[in-house]
């Protein structure tokens, strides 16, 4: 039996239970999870993740394991504490599920003495080396529900500007994709100029052509570097000059954390299941130091050393379409 530890780290992502459930099915793997990310490893109360414990819960919105942000991996000393605790318990590998920050930690922990595998999980879909992250599709679907309802009220009561603010961290993928999928009029994303006056002029020009406008605004569309992940309310400051210029009140919805929870969509559940299946294979083949990824529609394993951390994670195809449609804040 291969003794394997698993943590989730950073923001939660719907579907991760499917990945864990799939991994727990493998009879050659003895799987243990720790609550609360890296801190949970030091708290050292492993939970045996057997198939019997995991089955029937893969589609739950509540994860098998709580996730968390932790100071530990930022220092070599912290990482050594994690490694030593796991080695003392004879773990052969640590599976880390998380976003772009957790990915850095996974690589460092691997290089410093503990085999790791990394599974991309974040609603932001901003992880280097993979087209897809667990949780993204469910979050998009939740946003699309909100857009659909807003479109109804926009049709019922014309003459209004609606602005829907969504999560996404430093990357505009959630805003970009939901604006395109939802047929919205503008996506304000951090990759483009967030100059308030320019945005207001663009909105004014669009309002001259349409009865109502629906704008999707990324949480990080700040015009300064002061943004911290999870800050909310940027749409209020963007709306102010729009209202002054157009004389129309902006009706705002800050979607916030509603989108991170809930039952996973089929896409999240099936991709997570595939990730679990390929993670088991990587463990049995001792193919460590890798990320399980989705690229061009296929599950792949990507060596940490092949990751280009300076690359953009914004979806370039969608960006091109949005640019051509003139629905970006540029
Ligand atoms: N540069 C880094 N070096 C080492 N560990 C990091 C780094 N960035 C993040 N981490 C670890 O990963 C955790 C999650 O990272 P964070 O960026 O908050 O979320 P996510 O992994 O979902 O992007 C952090 O709390 C920290 O424990
Ligand atoms: O829950 P917190 O700690 O406030 O974090 C909020 C951040 O988490 C996210 O929802 C997901 O981020 P990560 O998955 O990268 O951790 C971001 O969209 C948001 O900026």
From TrEMBL:
GO molecular function terms listed in the Swiss-Prot or TrEMBL record: 6-phosphofructokinase activity; AMP binding; ATP binding; fructose-6-phosphate binding; identical protein binding; metal ion binding; monosaccharide binding
Gene3D superfamilies cross-referenced by the UniProt entry: 3.40.50.450, Phosphofructokinase domain (3.40.50.460)
Record Pfam families: PFK
GO biological process: canonical glycolysis; fructose 1,6-bisphosphate metabolic process; fructose 6-phosphate metabolic process
Biological role stated in the UniProt entry: Catalyzes the phosphorylation of D-fructose 6-phosphate to fructose 1,6-bisphosphate by ATP, the first committing step of glycolysis.
Family membership noted in the UniProt record: Belongs to the phosphofructokinase type A (PFKA) family.
Official protein name in the record: 6-phosphofructokinase
Organism from which the protein derives: Oceanobacillus sojae
């Amino acid at each position: 039996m291969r003794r394997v530890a698993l943590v989730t780290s950073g923001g939660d992502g719907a579907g991760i239970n499917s990945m864990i459930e799939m991994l727990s099915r493998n009879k050659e793997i003895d799987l243990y999870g720790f609550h609360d990310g890296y801190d949970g490893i030091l708290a050292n109360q492993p939970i045996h993740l057997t198939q019997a414990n995991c089955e029937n819960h893969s589609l739950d919105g509540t994860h098998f394991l709580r996730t968390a942000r932790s100071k530990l991996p930022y220092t070599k000393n912290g990482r050594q504490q994690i490694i030593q605790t796991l080695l003392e318990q004879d773990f052969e590998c640590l599976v880390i599920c998380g976003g772009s920050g957790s990915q850095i930690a996974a690589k460092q922990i691997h290089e410093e003495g503990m085999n790791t595998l990394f599974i991309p999980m974040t609603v932001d879909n901003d992880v280097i080396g993979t087209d897809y992250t667990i949780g993204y599709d469910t979050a998009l679907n939740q946003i699309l529900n909100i857009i659909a309802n807003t479109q109804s009220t926009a049709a019922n009561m014309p003459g209004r500007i609606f602005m829907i603010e969504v999560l996404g961290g430093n990357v505009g993928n959630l805003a970009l994709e939901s604006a395109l999928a939802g047929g919205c009029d503008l996506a304000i994303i951090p990759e483009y100029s967030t100059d308030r006056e320019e945005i207001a002029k663009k909105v004014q020009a669009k309002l001259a052509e349409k009865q109502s406008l629906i704008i999707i605004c990324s949480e990080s569309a700040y015009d300064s570097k002061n943004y911290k992940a999870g800050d909310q309310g940027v749409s209020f400051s963007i709306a102010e000059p729009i209202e002054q210029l157009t004389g129309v009140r902006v009706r705002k919805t800050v979607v916030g954390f509603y989108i991170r929870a809930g039952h996973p969509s089929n896409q999240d559940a099936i991709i997570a299941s595939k990730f679990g299946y390929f993670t088991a294979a990587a463990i049995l083949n001792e193919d460590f130091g890798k990320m399980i990824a989705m690229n061009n529609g296929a599950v792949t394993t990507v060596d940490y050393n092949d990751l280009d951390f300076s690359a953009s994670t914004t979806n370039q195809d969608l960006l091109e379409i949005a640019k051509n449609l003139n629905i970006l804040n540029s």
